[in-house]
Amino acid sequence: MKLITAIIKANKVDDVKNALSKINVTGITLSEVKGFGRQKGHKEVYRGTEIEVSFLPKSKLEIAVTDEQLDEAINVITQAARTNEIGDGKIFVTDLTKVIRIRTGETGPTAI
Predict the structure, then answer these.
(1) Is the pTM of this model over 0.90?
(2) Which structural domain range is residue 28 located in?
């Protein structure tokens, strides 16, 4: 089992969610976050004063998948979130050692 953490542009969340639904990946946790990478923010004018915005709004998706679903889920997220512009985001994959469904007590892949 793996945990996919995808940091993407906020306007791509629905596209990613719909694409994952088509491959039967259903559980997604969404957090609104701020961050920067190579993009390093941008400048805006507010009431006539130029300010630098270092941290840009992003969306963080956390998706637990089985090992068999991993590659397809990564491909789907990549395709749905890509705009071919700087700031498209990153995908991180970590191992899940244990998953427990609170309501039923199920563990392992059946709990996902």
Answers:
(1) no
(2) 2-111
